[in-house]
Structures are given as C-alpha cells and as structure tokens.
Amino acid sequence: MTSELDRLLAAAVDYQAPPATERAEFLRKIGEEIEALGEGLLTVCAEETGLGRDRLAGERARTVNQMRMFAGLIEEGSWVDARIDTAQPDRKPVPKPDVRRMLEPLGPVGVFAASNFPLAFSVAGGDTASALAAGCPVVVKAHPGHPRTSALVGEAIKRAVSASGIHPGAFGLLSEQSIEIGVALVRHPSVKAIGFTGSFAGGKALLDAAAAREEPIPVFAEMGSLNPLFILPHALATRGDKIAQGLADSVTLGVGQFCTKPGFIAGVVGEDLDTLAVQLGDLLSKKPAGRMLTEGIAGRFKKLIEERRGFVSAEGGGIFLVTDLSTFERAPELHEELFGPATLLVKCSGEADLIAFARQLNGQLTATLHADEEDMALAGKLTEILREKAGRIIWNGYPTGVEVSPAMHHGGPYPATSDARFTSVGTAAIKRFVRPTCYQSFPETLLPVELRNQNTRKVWRTVNGELSRENVA
C-alpha cells in the first residue's frame, strides 16, 4: 500500500496552485458535488455512524458552507498578509532595498479524518478545505468508522477536480485505513504538514513521528478537551434548574462525542449545588441511550466508566459522576477525558477552591462561566486564569456547537491541541498551511501578483507601514 501513498504524493508534488479565483471556484464545485450526493450520502452515513439524519443534514450544510467560506476568503485575498517596503536608494549610510513579503502554500498536507464528525471534520472537512484554499495539495487518511461515507465524499472531490480543470494531484484519498499507513503518511518526505482531529494518544504519536523525521514538520493536532464549566454562587442560586437542563442537553449531545462537551463542572458546596446535582443526575438518567460511533469507542467508554464506578452518582442515557476537590487532586484517572455521555461535578469548599481548581487545569479547547452581575468579582479572577488555559471562553452558555465563522477559534493550549496559536475552525485555519516568503529587490514580473506595484486584485496590503489598497507608485 506504500505504493499508493507514493503515487498520490508524487502527484501532489507536481501540483502547482492555480490563481485564487480558480481555487475559489474549485472549492465551490466541491460543495456542489457533495450536495449532489443527495439523500444517499445521509443514508450511508447514518448507517455507518448511528447519527441522526437531521444532525447529518446540518453537518453536510456546514461542510459545504465552509468550502464557500474559504472560497470567499481567497477571492478577497487580503489573508495573504502582503507587505511591501519600497526601496530608498539614497538612504544614508546604507541604501534601503525593496522588500516584499506574503504568505504562500506550505506544500503537500496529510489530513487524518475524525470519527465524530464524518462530514465536517472528515474527508472534505475543515483541514482539507483550509489546506486546499491555501494552495496546498491534500492526501487524506479516512477514518475506519465511516469508510463508505469517506469514499462517496472522496469521489465527489475528484469529480470537482476534473470539472474545474485542477491538476489531479490536488487531492488524494488513501484506500487503506490502518495505523501503519497513517504513520507512513507522516513520515513521507514529500509531506510538509499534518492536520489531525482525534485522541491525545493518536495525536501525540503523530507529533513524535513528525519530530523524528530528518526534516521535522508541523502537526496541527486537536486532541480533545475536558471543557470545564464553572457555576458561580449567585447564578447557581437563581437559575440552577435552567443550568442543569442546559448541561444535560450539552453533555448528551451527539451521545457525548463532541470534543467540546462539558466534561467538568465546578461549583461551591451547599444546598444550591446539592439541588443542581440531584436535578442534573435525574435529567441525565432519563436521557435516551444512543449508539456510539464505533464499537471500539463504546467499549472504551464503558471501561472508563467501570474504572470510575465509585464516583458514579446517576446513570442512564447520560452518566453523572461526583467528587470533591481534594479527591479529584488525588485521583489522576478523573482528569482523563470521558469521550461519551458523561460529566464530572467537582465540589469546591469555597471560592478559593474554585480558583485553585482553575489553576491546576491543563490546556483546554473551552472554558465556561455561568455568572450573574453579583458574581462579577469572582468571574474576573477566574477569567484571568482561564484565558491562559483555554482557547475559547464562554459566558452563560454551553461549549457544544462551534460556530463556523471568521472570528471562531477552535484550539487551545497543549494538550488540547499541539499549537495554541492556530485554529481548525474559521477562516484563520488557513494560516496553518502557509509560510511567509520574502522577496528582496526582485523583478516585478517574477513577483506574485499580490506583491506587484499594480494592485490588480485590490487586496489590502501593508505598504511602507500603512494599510492600503492602492497601487504602489
């Protein structure tokens, strides 16, 4: 099977990114081809994953819309961050050269599809969309949990390649889905970056393999999160019942298989917290049981719950675990993500304990505060801590549901992701798969179009320190 990988990457190396307008049309065509798969795609995906058709229809729309979002981004063009400093030949004591800089494609990208979003984080997911938008060719390792879905979407992308007149090396889908082919993809000398969504163990293995290469490459890995949710005293006292309902819905959404599921809840001990615990446990126990994505995921979830049996307070379609801060600190197994419909309440003795709990957290995708005006002083202290711990901080909401928009950040400090500076959702995701190139005293005809004196694309550029869309005199 290595021959297939070699063949796909040989074609990828030959790929030269076409102009942005052509890439944008290519991305839109991918969306059209996915939509053209119709109800058949949803039927196959539902059979393979157990996810409902309404959920999958929404995910298909998200997948298509992010293709269109990136198409609009690259058509507008300012994302390349073009910078131009014109020459000053008469400057003393040393003449100043003409220097121009912009972001350009990194090269072939290997993408590992996720299990829990078989469309939006899979073959045509955000990693693929952002890499193609950047001008990089992509080779995808499909997830074994939805092989037929992956094949259908892969063929749709190939049809878009053909219809758009794009070089066929732009996209490749590996037919093999083994761990070994994944490692070979990371180690292949033609690959310049990796996009991954999955477990910490899987992401860490890819990081290690990439670092051990003769030419190390970046791995942009999203590796899960516990997404702590803090309920502050006044909010708990005045609307604990509503918070309990929102939590029960969030914890069990998608059978708890969202990387943004609230896996930790923290509050101050007392009658109000006891009431919320009873309500939340009752709500979770009454949730209907759902089919998990794969037998392996279901088996691991069951095993982890059995290992935590002494902390289980309520059990049903959702599972509720309870502990106190001192026990939590002594039990490292409670710090591990439970990928499934379960959450853990950590009872803190007072506000100081809440702050101590926040300080000991490792990197997270999200952190949430439920607070009222009367909680502002404590909320301010927690926010100062949480902005160092999480990539997205939510106020009086729930972390499940990641809006696909230019301002969204879906990432966080290690071990939530491998590099907190980058996002896998939103238009900023394109920045993972580019690098800056600087051209000094170059002939105008050899410069990328975005760096030439005539700003034919009318993109925003930084010219001699000032933003401008004008031509360079």
- The total beta strand count reads 17
For the biggest β-sheet, the strand order reads: 10-11-12-9-8-13-14
Overall geometric form? globular
Task: Give the integer mean of the pLDDT values.
Answer: 97
- How far do the termini sit from each other? 55 Å
Helix content: 25-40%
Summarize the biggest pleated sheet. Answer: 7 strands, mixed
How would you characterize the overall build of this protein?
The protein is α/β, with parallel strands linked by helices and 473 residues long. Helices cover 40% and strands 17% of the residues. The chain has 14 helices and 17 strands. It has helices at 2-14, 20-36, 38-49, 53-76, 126-134, 147-164, 179-187, 200-211, 233-252, 271-286, 295-307, 325-330, 351-359, 376-386; strands at 83-85, 99-105, 109-112, 138-141, 171-174, 193-197, 219-222, 229-231, 264-268, 312-315, 319-324, 342-348, 364-370, 390-395, 434-440, 461-463, 466-468. The strands form three sheets. A seven-stranded mixed beta sheet has the order 10-11-12-9-8-13-14, sandwiched between helices. It has a five-stranded mixed beta sheet with strand order 15-2-1-16-17, with no helix packed on it. It has a five-stranded parallel beta sheet with strand order 5-4-3-6-7, with helices on both faces. α2 packs across α6, α3 (38-49) packs antiparallel against α6 and α13 (351-359) packs parallel to α14. The radius of gyration is 24 Å and the shape is globular. The termini are far apart. The model has no long low-confidence stretch (mean pLDDT 97).
